[in-house]
Amino acid sequence: MPLTMHQASVPVFNQTLAALSKVLDKAAAHCATSGQDFTELAQRRLAPDMMTLAQQVQQACHHATLVVARCAETEQPVFGDTDTDLDGMQNRLARSLEFLDGISPESMEGSEERRAEIQIRIGLLAFKGQDLLLHFAIPQVLFHATTAYDIIRHAGVEVMKVDFLGAAFSRKID
């Protein structure tokens, strides 16, 4: 049986966003015990021209929900961009996960070849659904989630690759 668009997207994004939520929890616990201000951490970036931790979380959620919404032919949730504290970031992640969980496999059937348009800073882009997912959205989600993880790790929070992978090990056969 071929891999479906739903199988290639929703479980991957759920795993990534849920793991990011737990990494944020570890960051908050670190801040509480070290006296570091989480609001300051949320505004950190790896380089001056990169997005902040809060923006990395926003973008990971945006790209995950965008591609799934386009492929399911439904409206993407509107989050705004004001969640720059822990509660706001966790709320965005929870709402994104809730949205993804509400998408049925049937709603994405046939989206592999269907035209999907997205607006980005450089203009309107059009893709086949499968190309949007595999060559744009998955790399975007993983880039922003990884960068968020890296900012948190660079701030001294003890996280490891297993934290980034989240529920990956629950899927092993043996």
List the helices and strands and how they pair.
Elements: H1 5-34, H2 38-42, H3 53-72, H4 86-101, E1 115-120, E2 123-128, H5 129-154, H6 161-165
Antiparallel strand pairs: 1-2
Helix pairs in contact: 1-3, 1-4, 1-5, 3-4, 3-5
Please tell me about this protein's structure.
There is one protein chain. The chain has 174 residues and is mainly alpha-helical. Helices cover 59% and strands 7% of the residues. The protein contains 6 helices and 2 strands; from the N terminus they run H-H-H-H-E-E-H-H. Strands 1-2 form a two-stranded antiparallel sheet. The longest helix has 30 residues. The chain is globular. 33% of the residues are buried.
Question: Key features?
Answer:
174 residues; 2 strands; two-stranded antiparallel sheet; single chain; mainly alpha
* Beta-strand percentage range: 5-15%
Approximate shape: globular
Indicate the mean pLDDT: 94
Rounded to the nearest angstrom, the radius of gyration is 16 Å
- Cα-to-Cα separation, first versus last residue: 22 Å
Helix content, binned percent: 55-70%
How many separate helices? 6
Quick structural summary:
It contains six helices and two strands, in the order ααααββαα.
